[in-house]
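Collaboration report, partner site 2.

Our partner group contributed sequences for two proteins of shared interest, and the home lab folded both. The records are reproduced in the order in which they were received, starting with the first partner submission.
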Amino acid sequence: MADITVTEYLLLHQKQSPHATGQFTGLLYDLILSGKTIARRITKAGLLDILGGTGEVNVQGEDVQKLDEIANRIMIYRMERCGALCAMSSEEEPELIRVRPEFPHGDYILVFDPLDGSSNIDANINVGTIFSILRRPDGNRGEVALEEVLQQGVRQVAAGYILYGPATMLVFSTGQGVHGFTLDPGVGEFLLSHPDMRIPQQGHVYSVNEGNWKNWSAATRDVIDWFHNCPSPTGSPYSSRYVGSLVADFHRTLIYGGIYMYPPDAKKPDGKLRLLCEASPLAFLAEQAGGKASDGMGRILERKPDKLHARMPLFIGSADDVTAVETIYAKHA
């Protein structure tokens, strides 16, 4: 099969998606260009002295890394000028970013985490950009209201991530399955490498930070005990794998199956992960790949955020594994 670039793929499949307009295709093109620019900065991070922290703390109460700030600036600069957006929200910005009047406006809203997992970058661990694309409610004009952005995940028109690692990969869905593209540095293009990605019905790996054990509820401890003792499809015990970079842990789960978990605890009763820029876009991908995503009680994509940086517990991956978690929590309800 001839190499298919991501742009060619979008054009070939444009008629299959009601959202794949010329404006939408242009939005994804600029998003991909942003990812390429970030990837280039990351590969030269050690040489350019842009590793480590800035000394500042973001809206989430987390230490800001130099590359966080750089990736955030790249995304905002490029995407504000793409002509397809009316507003953006970044994990690094406390307020909604409205596209300024001097730039052309479109009908789409972009929500993103510019560099997920950045606290691990000094150790050369995979990091990534997670994004969610929403459409402004029909007929709405003028300045974008916050309520227009606080949409359920089922209303996403596209979602995905760009993974920066040994190979740079773009994984995304427009509601027609999940497809992966690998950046060929020789030609500077993302080429289709993983068509129609599917999560196995049940996996053999669970991923969770067990260092939080003492802060978990009895229900959550029962969940983890279940994975300690349940046989995997091969008959062997589940293996534990935890990178600590959400996008890296999810990518492994998407490829091999299993479950990634970030449950609520005594310190974070609402969970840690942001619904709009982390849980919701990855849930969209999981479902499109035949998997499942839950907050422990129900479907992530049906949860409506009450604020821009609303947090949510997350259990995501193989459908049978996520269902097992919901069953255990229901017994404790």
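Second partner submission, folded after the first:
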Amino acid sequence: MTRSSSFRDFETLESYITKQQKLHVNVRGTFSQVLRRIGVASKIIESKVRKAGLVDILGVNGSVNVQGEHQVKLDDMANSIMKAAFSVIPSIAGMATEEEEDFTAFDNIEFDGSRYLVMFDPLDGSSNVDANVSIGTIFAVLKYDKATSKSSVTKEDFFKPGRTLSAAGYVIYGSSTMFVYTTGQGVHGFTLDPEIGEFVLSHENIKIPDQCKCFSANETNYNKWDQATKEFADTIRYSDDKRYQKASSRYIGSLVADFHRNLLYGGIYMYPTDVTTNKPKLRLLYECAPLAMIAEQAGGMASTGTQNILDIVPNQLHQRVPIVIGNKKDVEFYEELVKKYS
């Protein structure tokens, strides 16, 4: 017998957040409002992404962001949408974005509830937009210290390890649009139903499969990797270990897309330090820490090779770190190799 479609069949992001608010001490009204606002902002971004080929928002806009990268028009638009979404919430004390050098503080000192700091990459993978590749928004929410809630936000207030995050998540804009997040109570995914305009629960309590099905790395950089990283990659690609015999190279070049696939299928994503420049690529606050929280909540792990990503105390808004993220067994194996060669 086929189930009839009715409202009670749907668990929406809104209703799920409301339930979590009742069940868990660390999820309350002001915090739930922040998550809802991210959901609204992502719907607006999604609508613009869907029309990217029809309006003049493709291509480079002529400016360069703080990372020294040429911004595309869609980056600017997504950044503006996210900033506008947060600026109207009294519980937001401040925000930092990958696209801007400095943070933004909101002096809502008369607001008497819990306040939060938000960090985000408004449009990860945007350089792939012209090729119609999946892109995404990554976010992290940090509780603002109550003891200083009447004071102005400082840069140092953002410098907290990933383990202190209240929430982290991403929205992936692909063949479907998914909102994936955690508040420390598991990882849950919601797919946007375009007919009703709501994110509907589609993946509850996501766990990374205990297999290395996908190996995601820019392998053209192999000669720029240290020996531990080379051996790790070679083991996955060429060894007779049964764990890796069915592993396939899968690298999109859009972090959200690569991570999302590996989260669902099982695998490893890595972007190590370039030994020729001694510079890592990915940003701790906007990319690595949020995804590390999701990975750990899904039974996985994220590491630099010598330190768990969630234990790193940031010292810069745009700090970059090397990262290996995915199945816990494989990340721990990488750490063993790094220790072997140190």
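Feedback sent to the partner group on the second submission included the following. The CA atoms of residues 57 and 73 lie 5 Å apart. The two ends are 62 Å apart (CA to CA).
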